[in-house]
Design the sequence.
């Protein structure tokens, strides 16, 4: 399954990856810029740009907003709301759990500070953390500081963090998610997602459901499988920071896709992968066959990205008895000390194959817009 050819012809847009400019500007400028990149011109772009003005709910810890917590603002969004609701969060550290349920689509969480570090949503649950009601532990997905289950979610200028203390809790399962998405048409623009193991879970509502995520101008921090899940996810023009383990050692895995067959997995494009870790200590990824499901076909493509010397010369590895060579892992035109030539241990896309693995292919007809 490491043959990246497609059985049907596909339009060719050239060897370089398509980059979608996610600007923190007006809705109209954002939509028109995206439209120009993806061929959405004229009336279609204008219609996108002229979307209805959003409802805004304000959150401030000091009581100067409508709500003191982000979750309180989410709770105030009407069920099955038909249009955009922006939750405008003033600077501060919000130690809370946030869940956007599936019946509350079109929600945006946006920090109002000068940069994403000013507005932080953080908690410290891990997979093995006992639930307060005594009903067991949270599990990996349940450990998320912020959980998004509603379609058409957006986040901007905010940090999502899980600061679970691994060193102090060596006796429990340590997967600790900062952000979990299980929805379609998710936009993450100018955010930081920070943790250690299993930082960013990009999931879908169910195995048979499509879940597309477009992340740009952002930062992801972690060490073990810290970008993972079965979503069709693009990480564009972002910084992926490799972090040492709790005991100061350097070893880890950037991605762990669990893609369903005939779906796109994780695409990292036009980005940087680096960190203060030892040379040749991190894999780019490994195949996660969740629950031992042999029908899955995990996919990760890393292209047009700068790789530091932290990346191993054989950058993919097996997981739980499943060989990465039986799934879909490849690179294309990466640079930096961690990049390397094609070999049996390092598949590289041809120009023709790469033309079918661009951002627009992942988004599959969806043009993200800042509505």
Sequence:
């Amino acid at each position: 399954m490491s043959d990246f050819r497609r059985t049907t012809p596909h339009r060719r847009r050239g060897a370089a990856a398509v980059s979608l400019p996610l600007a923190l500007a007006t809705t109209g400028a954002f939509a028109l810029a995206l439209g120009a990149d993806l061929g959405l011109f004229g009336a279609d772009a204008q219609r996108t740009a002229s979307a209805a003005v959003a409802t805004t709910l304000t959150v401030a810890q000091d009581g100067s907003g409508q709500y003191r917590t982000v979750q309180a603002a989410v709770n105030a969004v009407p069920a099955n709301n038909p249009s955009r609701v922006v939750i405008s969060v003033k600077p501060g550290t919000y130690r809370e759990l946030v869940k956007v349920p599936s019946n509350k689509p079109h929600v945006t969480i946006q920090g109002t500070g000068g940069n994403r570090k000013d507005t932080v949503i953080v908690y410290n649950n891990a997979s093995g953390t006992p639930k307060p009601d005594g009903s067991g532990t949270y599990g990996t997905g349940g450990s998320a500081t912020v959980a998004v289950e509603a379609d058409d979610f957006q986040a901007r200028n905010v940090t999502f963090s899980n600061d679970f203390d691994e060193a102090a809790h060596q006796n429990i399962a340590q997967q600790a998610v900062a952000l979990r998405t299980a929805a379609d048409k998710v936009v993450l623009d100018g955010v930081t997602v920070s943790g250690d193991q299993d930082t960013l879970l990009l999931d879908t509502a169910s195995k048979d459901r499509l879940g597309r995520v477009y992340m740009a101008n952002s930062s992801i921090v972690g060490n073990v499988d810290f970008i993972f899940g079965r979503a069709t996810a693009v990480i564009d023009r972002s910084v992926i920071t490799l972090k040492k383990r709790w005991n100061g050692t350097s070893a880890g895995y950037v991605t762990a896709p669990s893609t369903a067959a005939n779906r796109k997995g994780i695409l990292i494009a036009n980005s940087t992968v680096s960190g203060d870790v030892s040379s040749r200590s991190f894999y780019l990824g490994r195949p996660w066959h969740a629950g031992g499901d042999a029908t899955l076909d995990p996919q990760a493509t890393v292209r047009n990205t700068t790789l530091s010397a932290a990346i191993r010369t054989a950058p993919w590895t097996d997981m739980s008895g499943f060989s990465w060579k039986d799934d879909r892992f490849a690179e294309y035109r990466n640079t930096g000390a961690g990049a390397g030539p094609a070999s049996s241990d390092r598949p590289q896309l041809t120009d023709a194959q790469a033309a079918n693995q661009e951002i627009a292919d992942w988004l599959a007809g969806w043009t993200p817009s800042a509505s």
